[in-house]
Amino acid sequence: VLSIFAFATTTSHSTSTKFSAHCINRTQPVTFSYSYPYDLTKVCFSQPVCGAGTKNATDSFCLLAGAQSAAQFYVFVGVIVFLYCLTSLVFYIVFDTLYRRYSRIVVADFIISIVLTVLWVISSSAWAAGVADVKTYTDPAEGGIIGPTSKVTDCQKPGSCTVDHLGNFASLNVSVIFGFLNFLVWLGNLWFLYKETPWFKVQAKPPMQPGAVSETDPQRV
To answer: Where are the transmembrane segments (predicted)?
Structure first.
């Protein structure tokens, strides 16, 4: 369930940013939308902004960067964890006797869970940085749209362009929280899986009492 929330809050998110260019005789609003997988280099709008919708608009400006690789990696981890959870659930219920009989299956389950735990912390950290990048590059004031060094000619002068509306990133913030929550849950889950492995059972085996004879003792009559 936690893995579903993690990748669902990422893939279902969609928002937009709006700013206005103050032209000579009018105000020209510009709105650009973005969503998963957040390849912001493909998010463009026509310029010069004051010539939008006319034959004067001969060029386009695209956002500087995005978080496509981090978003796709995060969703990939969430999906494979979800599928592994379903597989494990069926195996625990239907093949419980087989699971307890063969220690190799238990060890394999433990090792795979370690790998998934590591993937959760790596992907969540990368996605947290990716969300920060998305927020930065979709902000006209920070993403190179408004300012003296901007490639948008109509927004280079101070006060020539103003931000009307920034994107809503509540869903992405929640997705990052779910990512680290998944990591903590799987980290705790490793302890319970470790207790099923032969390594723990050998350590937890009670010592023999003095004078007791082992059932495997060859001298036992």
So the answer is: 73-95, 107-129, 174-194
User: Is the distance from CB of 62 to CB of 199 less than 8 angstroms?
Assistant: no
**Comparing C-alpha atoms, which of 143, 153, 137, 146 is closest to residue 20?**
146
Name every residue whose Cβ is closer than 8 Å to that of residue 189 and which is 6 or more positions away in sequence: 113, 117
Q: How far apart are CA 54 and CA 221, in angstroms?
A: 103
- Give the integer Cα–Cα distance in Å for 77 and 178: 12
- pTM equals 0.82
pLDDT digit string, tens, across residues 13-68 = 999 999 999 988 889 999 999 999 999 989 998 888 887 655 555 688 888 888 99
Contacts of 43 (CB under 8 A, 6+ apart): 32, 33, 34, 62, 63, 66
pLDDT single digits (tens) 111-146:
999 999 999 999 999 999 999 999 999 999 888 899
